[in-house]
Amino acid sequence: RNLMAMDTEEMLRAQPMDAAVLIGGCDKTLPAQMMAAASADVPAVFVPVGPMLVGHHRGETLGACTDCRRLWGEFRAGRIDAFEIEAINERLAPTPGTCMVMGTASTMACIVEIMGLALPYSASIPATHADRLRSAEASGKQAVAMAINAGPKPGELMTAAAFRNALVLMQAIGGSTNALIHLTAAAGRLGLPIDLDAVDRLGREVPVLVDLKPSGRHYMEHFHWAGGVPRLMHELSDLLDLDARTVEGRSLRDVLAGVAIDTAQDVIRPRADPVYAGGSMAVLRGNLAPRGAILKQSAASPHLLQHEGRALVFDSLEDLAARIDSPQLDVTADDVLVLRNAGPIGAPGMPEAGYLPIPKKLAAQGTKDMVRLSDARMSGTAFGTIVLHMTPEAALGGPLALVRSGDVVRLDTKARRIDLLVDEAELARRQEAFDAEGAPGAAAVPDRGYAALFHRSVLQADEGCDFDFLVPGRRSR
Questions:
Q1: Is 212 helix (H, G, I), strand (E, B) or coil?
Q2: What are phi and psi of 286, to 5 degrees?
Q3: What is the Cα–Cα distance from 40 to 408, expressed in whole angstroms?
Q4: How far apart are CA 256 and CA 472, in angstroms?
Q5: Kind of pairing, strands 336-339 and 44-48?
Q6: Distance between CA 4 and CA 207 in Å, rounded?
Q7: Cis-peptide, bond into residue 465, ω within 30° of zero
Q8: For residue 468, how many other CB atoms are within 10 A of its CB?
Q9: pLDDT score of 70
């Protein structure tokens, strides 16, 4: 994402463009373009490429990648054979387009639309539909108008109010946890910090209204035919700043005035009948995440949202791969799986590794979910009781580095806490040992190339994982 953001920004600066059309799909492309547009401040209209259509298998509707994760878990548990999983794989992604669930691609498409950077309805039109071509043509015409009028520029649209609107929508759609990192990075380019405590307050106020996987039942094409982002805006109108402007020069209020609300549909719920009343994302703090961690509670198991369990620690992705399926692994369904050194520095690159697999022997016994913690990200299509983005990360000496297998971890979602139940004196001793010995399992420090630039300059999750030298007012370390 950061490399693409730099590339896009420099292309916008280097070429004599009066306006640009930015076409993005999976998953990092729209965020990279948002960051570049914010920095270059050349008039631009965003064109999301649109979601795939659903697949079908034996009478069941399938979508990448929520259903593939669910069914792959059944395969690992021995309840689906190799022939069956191959047939399923052939039906999970049946057309061009991005994932048809509310993964990162769909989340970011909805975000650029509500922020006024893309035309109305463009987030959800299926990739294969003729309306997608019509929307692209209209976007090109809009880019010409913006070139003639010298705006509006991204900096005029990407305001504090627009980012707040995006955060409201992110909660209401059950959006990808990755979107929070991407929004933080884009806002950071404009000197607009995203306050995690404010995000959590919105999470308590804004219910999940879109009945769409992984938080609900339906898929993006159903969301589109239900009215898409403009129809959802009608349900959220009192929570949004409707005076925020769009690339068309109109306000969101103007967009909302033309929305039909009398069509029967069951995908976009009214506030009185939400999919999940508690909001999509919760921001956790505590002695394991003093600068914050994220839990997508709408896609979690309710009985695990308040939980104490024994930690089982994996020091790296390699350690996880080597041990997770061992019949000798000392693990029960009540344990808490901990992966560390999977953050921006430790992995490196903060991969989508937070969706730790259920240990094979527990999956075979029917375990579907466990509490899982990491300094990694996870796909927006994933589900489960998974605590992510734990900051600061283990490789920098964050508290996750101090956890030992057998320690007790407490998740208290109601209190927004994630804590290690170990006394302060013992934690101080462990910190001294870490400071002396470093982080076992963390990636070696690179000495050249983009990897060295990344290691030297990348910020932590609560600051969007952008490069410090691209953020106004930051000094490179």
A1: strand
A2: 135, -175
A3: 48
A4: 34
A5: unpaired
A6: 33
A7: no
A8: 16
A9: 86
What distance in Å separates the CA atoms of residue 309 and residue 87, rounded to the nearest whole number? 38
Judge whether 413 and 373 are in contact, CB under 8 Å: no
Cβ atoms of 366 and 332 closer than 8 Å: no
Helix (H) or strand (E) holding 1: none
> Is the omega angle on the peptide bond into residue 31 within 30 degrees of 0, that is, cis?
no
Going by C-alpha positions, the residue among 322, 236, 336 that lies closest to residue 288 is 336
Q: What is the pLDDT of residue 475?
A: 63
- 475 class by beta-carbon count within 10 Å (0-12 exposed, 13-18 middle, 19+ buried): exposed
In 10 A of CB 205, how many CB atoms? 11
Residue that is written with structure tokens 């804590």 in the block? 419
Angle between helices 82-89 and 66-76 (to 10 degrees): 170
- The values of phi and psi at residue 57, to 5°, are -150, 115
CA distances from 346 to 174, 373, 385, 455, 459 (A): 28, 15, 23, 9, 12
Query: SS3 string of 7-45?
Result: HHHHHHHHCCCCCEEEEECCCCHHHHHHHHHHHHCCCEE
pTM of the model: 0.95
DSSP structural state of residue 354: -
Reported residue count of the chain is: 477
Query: Closest Cα partner for 106 from 174, 20, 38?
Result: 174
Closest CA to 309 of 387, 382, 203: 387
- Determine the Cα–Cα distance for residues 8 and 39; give it in Å rounded to an integer: 10
Of 417, 423, 357, nearest to 390 by C-alpha is 417
Q: How many Å apart are CA 269 and CA 226, to the nearest integer? A: 10
What is the pairing mode between strands 44-48 and 417-420? unpaired
**Partners of 281 in the β-ladder:** 296
Segments of the chain with pLDDT less than 50: none
Q: Measuring CA to CA, how many Å separate 466 from each of 83, 422, 431, 443?
A: 43, 33, 27, 19
State the distance between the two ends of the chain, measured CA to CA, in whole angstroms: 20
Q: Which amino acid makes up residue 474?
A: R
Q: SS3 for 339?
A: strand
